[in-house]
Amino acid sequence: MLVSNWEPDVLGDGYEQLTIPLGTDPDDEGDVAATLVRYQPEAVTERTGRAVLYVHGFTDYFFQKHLAEHFAAQGYAFFALDLRKCGRSLRQGQTAHYVSDLSLYDTELDEAVRLVREDTGNGDVLLVAHSTGGLVLPLWLDSRRRRGTPVPGVAGVILNSPWFDLQGPSYFRSVGTVAVDAVGRVRSRSVVPTGLSEAYGASLHADRGGEWHYNLDWKPLGGFPVTFGWLRAVRRGHAQLHRGLDIGVPALILRSKKTYFSPGYDPRVDTADAVLDVKQIARWAGCLGDRTTIVPIEGARHDVFLSSEEPRAKAFDEVDMWLEWLHAHATAAAD
Questions:
Q1: Which parts of the sequence belong to the Serine aminopeptidase S33 domain (predicted)?
Q2: Cα–Cα distances in Å, from 259 out to 121, 164, 262, 331?
Q3: Is residue 45 assigned to a domain?
């Protein structure tokens, strides 16, 4: 696989991007590529030989500079991956975020880990993922272990509000899933009629009174259309998770303490998960197959690292405490 050279990234000073060509799309949307972003500040603190690889969720891409800067301050080399047809990797004529099978992402995940380890001296890699990315990563790790080729160098996983089951009424998860499977098989790019609310996006974006600046072409306030074929792939991924996985490494799961769904912006959206049902995250958190720590964050948004200042600081404190434990645990296991 021939990759390009590192080039300046849209995030500005200290950020670079690398295109990872993936060849012809198995879903018939031309050539596809992924994009690896790295953060290399001029004033590099003492390196630990460790790296972070971050993976976004649906209707998302990497723009959270404060996340990169936090891990860099802890001595980690920071990298993020925009998956095929997402963010920096979306090409004209392609259906944003569309894949017919979540395992298609294995190709860029394998290559991203290889490039990160090559760039950082083959040290440990901490995987961090949000929402749909928090489903994709465990499925990939489990698949590699089942094939007898575990992903090399992975030390642990941090999942930020992972999408472990479908939100909404219970019939969405029963007869609704049967319907999605049937329609998704024959009309894969037809759009699910239930659209996404703008409430979460409005709570985030600076133009709507939020704190964060990001590209609305890559992360629309109301989300990209949800297609039956993509949702079918997600529901099949959920079924795999519910049968039990073995990711092979410890995991930290961060989530909000409560869910609040709203058709439009409401101040209560600022202190709750407005996208996923946190009860479903809690229900299935034990399916990862290794030691799992679950921490609800009071007042957190769907992306806990995009919460307001107090819950965001609490989330970072929990990350740092867990990392101390992870390093001690790894040291003890090696003795």
A1: 50-257
A2: 42, 14, 10, 38
A3: yes
Q: What is the pLDDT of residues 24-47, one digit of tens each?
A: 999 999 999 999 999 998 765 556
Residue 197 included in any domain: no
CA distances from 331 to 122, 124, 325, 335 (A): 18, 13, 10, 6
The answer as to whether 125 is a domain residue is yes
Total domains in the chain come to 1
Which residues neighbour 184 within 8 Å (Cβ) at sequence distance 6 or greater?
A: 227, 228, 229, 230, 231, 232, 233
The per-residue pLDDT of the chain, averaged, comes to: 92
3-state SS assignment for residue 108: helix
Q: Does any domain span residue 203?
A: no
Kind and range of the H or E run holding 281? helix 278-284
Q: How many residues does the chain have?
A: 335
Residue 260 is encoded by which pair of tokens? Answer: 């609040």
Instruction: Return the pLDDT at 47.
Output: 63
The pLDDT tens digits of the residues spanning 263-283 come to: 889 999 999 999 999 999 999
Is residue 174's pLDDT more than 60?
no
Q: What pTM, to 2 d.p., does this model score?
A: 0.95
Q: Name, in order, each residue with C-beta under 8 angstroms of 18's C-beta and a sequence gap of 6 or more.
A: 3, 4, 5, 6, 7, 35, 36, 37, 38, 115
How far apart (Å, rounded) are the C-alpha atoms in residues 116 and 122? 8
